[in-house]
Amino acid sequence: MSWQNNMKGLKRISEKPNDMVLMDLPEPRLPGDDWLKVKVSYAGICGSDIKMFHMDCSAPDSKLRPPVIPGHEFSGIVWEKGSAVHHVEVGDRVVCHTMVKPCGRCEYCLTGNWGLCRERKGIGSDINGAFAEFLVCPAKNAIKIPEELPLDTAALTEPLACSVRIVEEIGKIRRGEKAVIFGPGPIGACCAMTVRANGAVPVIVGTKHSRHRMEVLQDNGIQCFINDEKLPKNILDYFGGYADMAVDAVGKEAVFQSTFHVVKKLGRIVVGAIDESSTGYSVNMTKVFGSQIKVLPSCSSTPKGWHEALNLLSEHQDEFKKFISGSYPLEQWDRAFQKAESRDGFKIMLRP
Ligand SMILES: [Zn+2]
Ligand SMILES: [Zn+2]
């Protein structure tokens, strides 16, 4: 066996809650000639990373499969490539989508819905992710970062691609439409930017605890309201009618129920996040049927959405940069996680 370097990695070592340790690990090797080794530059901490951190992962349907290095929102530099890789070179700056080993044969794979394939694996959940100095991923997942886009902003590609799916691919936003987005976190903020890039008008709805975030959003020219009893009236006054589309970017049943108060007849409600601890939301089918409201789930992202997200980030990078509230070296991962969990900022990143 040839000599192998060590790297720092933040590893979930067991299924027990919070059992994550920063440790010296062997650098990963390319598992095939069509894979890349990437030096991670920035890795965003996702809400799902925090949820998983605290969760017992012994359940058979657990999304995290310890022992594993989490982290799925990243940018980096190609460090090594297999002999069959031609579309990127060593030294290229890349982002990589996280769907690995879809079977390619099932009806979901054949219709581009890889996220629903039973066999697919995820970087940062089933196989080692970006909370480490290096990771390996299939080369076909890598997309070059446009020259003008900095590496930190590029690490927002994954959450923005999820928002592109919510707003465009599932929500089918059209020019001139009006959209109310519940949840002023990173996904909600990215949804609002995507709505506006489509020539539609976004409003963000938060609570009085999200004032910091709303100030940043308002600084980007996005109208914000508090979710209280005055909300439907505020929406009516601001838009001159109810919204064509409402998005739940929080994942709480109470928020989902609020979306019905702001959406017009024939409108769409896109459920972009779900409370997984809930045993099931109740839906007022009389209202859904009578007002012909469409309730549409949106999960994960598509490769097409990743390309679009990179273009959006390049075009509006000054505005997106405001959604990065801090970055910490890997050694300070616990501080970074606390900061991300406090929700007083937007995206917190690690710098492995
Ligand atoms: Zn994420
Ligand atoms: Zn499949």
From TrEMBL:
The answer to whether the entry has keyword Metal-binding is: yes
List the InterPro entries.
ADH-like_C (IPR013149), ADH-like_N (IPR013154), ADH_Zn_CS (IPR002328), GroES-like_sf (IPR011032), NAD(P)-bd_dom_sf (IPR036291), Zn_alcohol_dh (IPR050129)
Instruction: Tell me which cofactor or cofactors this protein depends on.
Output: Zn(2+)
Q: Which Gene3D superfamilies match?
A: Medium-chain alcohol dehydrogenases, catalytic domain, NAD(P)-binding Rossmann-like Domain
Any one GO MF annotation of this record: oxidoreductase activity
Q: Where is the Alcohol dehydrogenase-like C-terminal domain?
A: 186-314
Q: Which UniProt keywords apply?
A: Metal-binding, Oxidoreductase, Zinc
All copies of domain Alcohol dehydrogenase-like N-terminal, residue ranges = 32-147
Q: What does the record list as coiled-coil region(s)?
A: none
Its family? Belongs to the zinc-containing alcohol dehydrogenase family.
* Protein name listed in UniProt: GroES-like protein
Q: Show the taxonomic lineage.
A: Bacteria, Bacillati, Bacillota, Clostridia, Lachnospirales
